[in-house]
Amino acid sequence: MEAVFSNVDRLFGQLEPDPDRPEDIDVGDPEMFVGSLTEGAIESGVWTCSVGGWPETDYAVNEVMVMVAGRLRITNEDGSVHELSAGDMFFLPKGWAGRWDVLEDMKKIYFIVE
Q: Domains in the chain, please, with CATH?
């Protein structure tokens, strides 16, 4: 693997529709877009989502995320709630179950390790 460099604003300017949009959205009709920096065993890039919500029953990957803009509420399966906004960083492990609720259009930087 080679070193890869990019400007975050440039990545946010080169977004494509997210092919992994959840099928079980139950609040709103959020639009999701992704801009990839790296793909493969280690994925990284940027992601945007408009207001909406959905349950997660078996998160597919280990993912570290950094909020760049907007507001997000993550509800764990045990009912604990975390409200996140610009500057917050969080990790969801593979197999995680809970709920995503995008409260304000959001942007994040992500890192995925399978």
A: 8-113 (2.60.120.10)
